[in-house]
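INTERNAL AUDIT FORM
Audit reference: QA-55
Scope: verify that the stored structure record matches its stored sequence.
Auditor: D.O.
Record contents follow.
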Amino acid sequence: ATGGWPFVPEVEGKEHVVTSNEIFNLPKLPSQMVIVGGGYIAVEFAGIMHGLGVDVTVFERGPKVLRGFDEDVRDFLINEMTKKGIKFMFNTSVDKIDMQSEGLTVHTTTGNTVPTELVMYATGRVPNSRRLGLEAVGVDMDEVGAIKVNGDYQTNVPSIYALGDVTNRVNLTPVATAEGMALVNKLYAGKNSVMDYDNIPTAVFSQPSIGTVGLTEAKAREKYKDIDVYKSEFKPMKNTLSGATERTLMKMLVVRSTDKVVGMHMVGPDAGEIIQGMAVAIRAGATKATFDSTIGIHPTAAEEFVTMRNSH
């Protein structure tokens, strides 16, 4: 379980960039920076650095950040981060990075140039499998270095097991922990523990934060065809007196024929804390009627999930 390592693609000037490994050890805080990437790490550090007063621009090669998340979640986050002053350049890739006496210049493949003090790459992570001597003992790996394992986390070398990010499946810390416990139970407790990869909750600690569990709307429609979508956007009550403009998004996906809740998504304060509880409900097979019959806690944002009544 050796985890992952930041990936920086081959680009002229890559020696001038930092990754999540180095970002906390900067000699001084820059006044402006470019973050290349559009995943968890990119949007999280965009919020962190902007909160410290840095002028942040995010380069994303696709049309939006957080590929694979629900489309409403992606759009809502981009809007909220833009309102805070974080800039986005979509459909943008880096051609090269120049170092001058006054700082760095990022050249894009579309011909734009962006001067900046710091460039951070957050373009994904690769399995941390190199320099472990695995090739010497014949452990099979794929083209990106992910260790190949069977359903019991066993490699083709029977005495070697691998789990977590180094196998490049569901790259989340709690998943690696659960895989580790499943393996321990099998090897030392005689229990045939099987890891269930369905409905794994996750959070993105962006600003505002994201919590999500289950299917996106697109995946739900693909799997079940007829679904009811419950969605609410609002300003939390605690922002009323402060005058804060940050809004919250909540979304619930329900299979029309069974009333079963198959997806829940939130963007807003404490989203991860709230969705953790919702993940239990989804794994327990909760229906929309279950939520409707549950009394909300007032005044909280979470009560919105049990008071949603209008679908589309």
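Auditor finding: record pair retrieved intact. DSSP finds eight helices and 14 strands in the chain.
Action required: none
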